[in-house]
Specification:
181 residues; alpha+beta; 5 strands
Length: 181
């Protein structure tokens, strides 16, 4: 019975690792069950496409090997919880950083597995500081909009100046014709 359950857990972890855009290893020592529940809820409220899961190290190592990401096995060490991010790459780190900052909490980060590579835990804060995709798109649109608006202003000024010259010339011709009559 226990062996079958472990196989199911390994298969579930393999699936999560294969689907996740980012996986963060967190040392949860010192947190109570209630703290972990609040951490899960807090992160999920900020980033709905995430999952925080406490894992058994041996099962995680088997899942990482089975998924073809042996480097990810190094995330598991002593008391480890894994934060899987399934959406935007920066969403899970940003939610984790916001929750720990708002609750004045220190959670040691073991490492980050992203794009097939295991990276140092310091990458979480670097990723959290990267603007989200919608923010970047807005900045690009704003950057493109600014020169277009400037060009429209310049063209409008040219047409306005040409219209003023034509109008001035028309008035000049009218005044020149009026005394001749």
């Amino acid at each position: 019975m226990a062996t079958e359950r472990k196989r199911e857990q390994v298969a579930l972890l393999e699936e999560r690792l294969g689907r996740a855009s980012i996986t963060i290893g967190i040392d949860y020592r010192g947190l109570s069950v209630r703290d972990m529940q609040e951490l899960r809820r807090g992160i999920r409220a900020e980033a709905p496409e995430t999952e925080l899961r406490v894992i058994k190290n041996t099962l995680w190592r088997r899942a990482a090997d089975g998924a073809g990401h042996a480097a990810a096995a190094d995330l598991a060490e002593e008391s480890t919880a894994l934060l899987f991010g399934f959406g935007d790459l920066t969403e899970a780190p940003r939610a984790l950083q916001k929750y720990t900052r708002d609750n004045r909490m220190e959670l040691p980060i073991r490492g980050v597995f992203v794009e097939g590579e295991l990276q140092d835990g310091s990458q979480v804060s670097a990723l959290a500081d990267v603007p989200s995709r919608p923010e970047l798109m807005a900045k690009v649109a704003g950057g493109l909009n600014s020169p277009v608006a400037g060009l429209a202003g310049v063209l409008s000024a040219v047409f306005r100046d040409v219209a003023a010259i034509v109008e001035a010339r028309a008035e000049q011709l009218e005044t020149a014709e009026a005394p001749a009559e």
